[in-house]
Amino acid sequence: MFEIALQTHESCDDLLTEARPGLASNRIHQGDCRTFLKHIKDKAIDLVVTDPPYFLDGLDNGWRKGGKEAPRATGTVGGLPVGMKFDPAQGKALQQFMSGIAGELIRCMKPGAFALVFSQPRLSHRMAIALEDQGFEIRDLCVWHYTKRTQFKAFSQNHFIERMDLPDWKKRQIIAEMEGLKTPQLRGQHESIILAQKPRQGTFVENWQRWKTGLMNADASLDGSRPSNVMQVEKADLAERGVAAEHLTPKPLRLLSHLIELFSSEGQTVLDPFLGSGSTAVAAQSLKRDWIGIEINPTYVALAEKRLADAMI
Ligand SMILES: C[S@@+](CC[C@H](N)C(=O)[O-])C[C@H]1O[C@@H](n2cnc3c(N)ncnc32)[C@H](O)[C@@H]1O
């Protein structure tokens, strides 16, 4: 665990504690971020951009025949049938999972530094509470908006009506009455990004003078206008994703680059404890930021390494 998987260019500072000496930045660290984050020094990180697992699946596998599966040691998630997906326990488990991580993040971030944390919209309140309870100030709830058509997942109840213990004519009658009615699942066209900030030391000016954090670069723009909390960037299609398509949920580089430009400066260090296919690292590298990536799945580590190597050519 936690072998250094890649070094793209020279790291500047040693950001790891004496318990785990060694260079940390511009490397992917393979392992569980809940353990690795503890080795990052206090007040070492300038920006966090991360996209944790969404916890919509796999938190309770008790529905499976034969009873519950052993709890997953990694924090990764599996699959649930549609009917189980609105279990409120999912949100509570996400909050609990993120709470310990948020505590480590705020410790290792500089005063005034920002954390941009992606979240599925319907669980974003739990994510925000996890961050706020650990001392972050929730400054905004940004929206990543994409117009590309996504799958429409709402379904009719006909299948269940057919299975009801009723005469056939009655089933036909109910089906006719409920024509056009579907489960309340709107087509997804956005994801939430929580903008959280570690409290500043003193005024904006005092904090900036000491830490070079706490203010945004108002010239960063997606479309030529002033930066907004609605960020419209299309999802890349499979061809555009290249090797990143081997990961289920790669985020668009354009969006990550915008977030990094808005909330950090050249030479600063960007941390992503859920690196996935390496998108944050690729964007940070191209913008001349140092970065630290943590990813639990060795297959994704290898994929991220390949993307970073390709991006340097
Ligand atoms: C939503 S994906 C991130 C996708 C990434 N933003 C990208 O563009 O490729 C979340 C990632 O977190 C990883 N992960 C889950 N639990 C983890 C943990 N405890 N420590 C480190 N990584 C973890 C998963 O393997 C997955 O690749």
From TrEMBL:
Q: Which Gene3D superfamilies does the record associate with it? A: Vaccinia Virus protein VP39 (3.40.50.150)
Name the enzyme's class.
transferase
Reaction(s) this enzyme catalyzes, per UniProt: a 2'-deoxyadenosine in DNA + S-adenosyl-L-methionine = an N(6)-methyl-2'-deoxyadenosine in DNA + S-adenosyl-L-homocysteine + H(+)
Keywords recorded for this protein, A-Z: Methyltransferase, Transferase
Question: Ranges for the DNA methylase N-4/N-6 domain?
Answer: 45-306
Among Pfam families, the record links this protein to: N6_N4_Mtase (PF01555)
Task: Give its E.C. classification number.
Answer: 2.1.1.-
Q: Which family does it belong to?
A: Belongs to the N(4)/N(6)-methyltransferase family.
**Would you tell me the protein name for this molecule?**
Methyltransferase
